[in-house]
TrEMBL record:
GO cellular component, one term: endoplasmic reticulum membrane
GO MF annotations, alphabetized: heme binding; iron ion binding; monooxygenase activity; oxidoreductase activity, acting on paired donors, with incorporation or reduction of molecular oxygen
Similarity-based family: Belongs to the cytochrome P450 family.
Organism in which the protein naturally occurs: Photinus pyralis
Residues binding heme, per UniProt: 103
Protein name as catalogued: Cytochrome P450
Amino acid sequence: GPDRAVEVDDLGRFHYMERVMKETMRVFPVGPVLVRAVTKDIQLENCVIPGGSSVAMVVIKTHRNEKYWPQPFRFDPDRFLPEEVAKRHPYAWLPFSGGPRNCVGPRYAFTAMKSLIATVVRKYKFSTDYNCIEDIKLKADLVLKPVNGYNVSVKLRE
């Protein structure tokens, strides 16, 4: 019931919720840019990136790239089914960065988010007037934010 506390054993069974969370982070990544220092010159086709430079990658551009995500503006948690993930380049999804210097907190973040979401959605119903992902205009700050704020209504479930 809605009053029962979420337990650790519950979290491992929330497979669909985890896919929804991952798809949400694909469409609306928290961190807009990943920046890395180039330690030595790198040749990329007709361009040399000199050692000592910084390189920035706009995460949302990768997360909405049709090369990796067919119909990128369609919200589809099944993109994160294991068989779909196996077909994709490992760096096509980077909400926590990637490689040896990625964020150390994804496991904790998913555990905390699952626990919070499972607790809140049992007691409250959420709705919005947005009809599609393209309706939500974003601005880059320390994190990506909607230009017009968070258009969400919250009501107690009956």
